[in-house]
Write a structure and sequence with these properties.
TIM Barrel, 9 strands, oxidoreductase, 388 residues, flavin adenine dinucleotide binding, alpha/beta, mRNA processing
Length: 388
Amino acid sequence: MDQDFVHPLKLFDLAKSQKRFLYTSAPMVRYSKLAFRQTVFEYGTDLCWTPMVLAKEFNRNRFARDSDFTISTNGPQPPTIVQFGANVPLELARASSLVAPFASGVDLNCGCPQSWACAETLGAALMENRELVRDMVIETREHLRRDGWRVGKEKDIDSPKGRSVSVKIRVHKDLRKTMDFITTVLGPDQDRHIDFLTIHPRTRSTPSSTPINVESLEILTSTFGDRVPILVSGDVFTLNTLPFTSHLVPPSQDPQQQQQPLIKIPKLAGLMSARAILANPALYAGYDACPWSAVETFMNKVAKAPLPFKLVLHHLSEMCAPGMGPNKNALLSKPERAAMLACSNTVDLIDFLDEKRARVLQQQEASQDNGAGGVVASVFDGLRRDMQ
């Protein structure tokens, strides 16, 4: 497949030149599929992650490859990082070579806290095996280089064969262990082992309901931010309510945050959102709640890159419910969401969404004539034609 790929480091540079963070969507099990990645890409996400793919199964099973990694051959293929779960250098390297023709880079998951992953020495369990992680990224980079891919980091950002190798981590209770981990995995400044780093500033046992440790993030970015671009994952709910500040953050409009000075993190390069962008794919476009247009965009993407019907319903239930930010307005009420979940097929679902959207437009047009009804009708009419 002939396709141009943008090197992730080039995207970091572009965001920096625009005096903003790089905007990314997180690897979410089941949810970071192609249709969702295409949707968030249309709403300002610069770089998308796939769900975590188990490298060993991916290497050995054609069905795993077909189900775990879907790409677009007709339409936008967002800049995509394929995240792998692995604990053997050669397994990660081989899996990375398989996806290299179709992705901008590969990422090693060192952050998943689920018990099954840690029992297999995957995800967050790797935070106790820094030499193994170092060996895996070195082996992967060498394997990609031997296969003809350009993995020279900044010097290869303009190459059509330039690819990145990165790691996503959590932190330890003793932050010194995290600093030792990063130092080992990062390697020498003159030829570091990874292109960029994602930090989720919670420990393996910290629940997602507990705020991220901003103090740890500040220390780690201050220590390593000049050596490698760093993304933060966690508590990115809206652009106006980040739990820290930076020269790249617009002044907060939240009176409570204005009264409580936030820690400044000047060496952070980008943001990664998971739960919030699942509920509001337009987060990075500046919306503080999910707009109807994002629902329409998602349904159009699903028509061309199908997902299991139950998964589509779950996406929509997240998008139509109150989001993670302060704005708790919802596209559908709780009874309406229950009625939507009762739909048994895609045609019924589209009819349901069409009816609810038309009602919203009628309410809007009662106060002002915006003439949007015909546009929305044509969107859903197009979906119906695609299904016939």
